[in-house]
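Example record

Each entry pairs one chain with its bound ligand, 2'-deoxycytidine-5'-monophosphate.
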Amino acid sequence: MSGRLVIAIDGPSASGKGTLARRLAAHFHLPHLDTGLLYRAVGWAAERSGRPPAAAAAALKTTDLANPELRTDLAGQAGSKVAAIPEVRANLLRFQKEFASQPSGAVLDGRDIGTVICPDAPVKLFVTAGLEARAERRYRELRERGAAPIRPRVLAEMAERDRRDSERAAAPLKAAPDAYLLDTSDMDADAAFAAALAFIERKGFRSVGP
Ligand code: DC
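Structure tokens for the complex follow.
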């Protein structure tokens, strides 16, 4: 291995970044943080309690992240809204930076990992896919979970979330200049993993251990 491996993964929802992050973390035996879950938890807590989002972010505990309701699209929208508030982002910054600086190395995925949280990460991936492809993935995922989603609504909500996450002033979704761009529109999870792994190995990192 060449140095401590930190893998920073950014991209819009349903781009495949979460699956890729989990697979890379397993392959390289690294701890993984899904930072979207932090924003979802803050949005959810603020909506439920009526507390200001910045206060909910300051009081967030890692045990809060286990709530299965955070996986819903409602929680995703709530997370996207509070993520535009600079105080919320500031209150979540230290936890994410500490996670990234563990001696073991780490994998983090989100929207601003390569730009704000880990600007010095040796590996940055920007995972994206066309809006239609991502909306179709989300639609299928919701059906598999037993929901009855409406296709045009899934697409409209995803477009709205993209817009909010990309156009906000505070740490918007964007690729770091040194990120490897991975468009997964026509790739399955195996192909995306293979492409990302080839890129990381070209940088001199290899999996060690069992
Ligand atoms: O990745 P996700 O869908 O779980 O993220 C939920 C919301 O949280 C997303 O719409 C924007 C926000 N987010 C962010 O602003 N910065 C991050 N690093 C991760 C997520």
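Residues 13, 35-36, 39-40, 76, 79-80, 83, 110-113, 161, 165 surround 2'-deoxycytidine-5'-monophosphate (CB under 6 Å).
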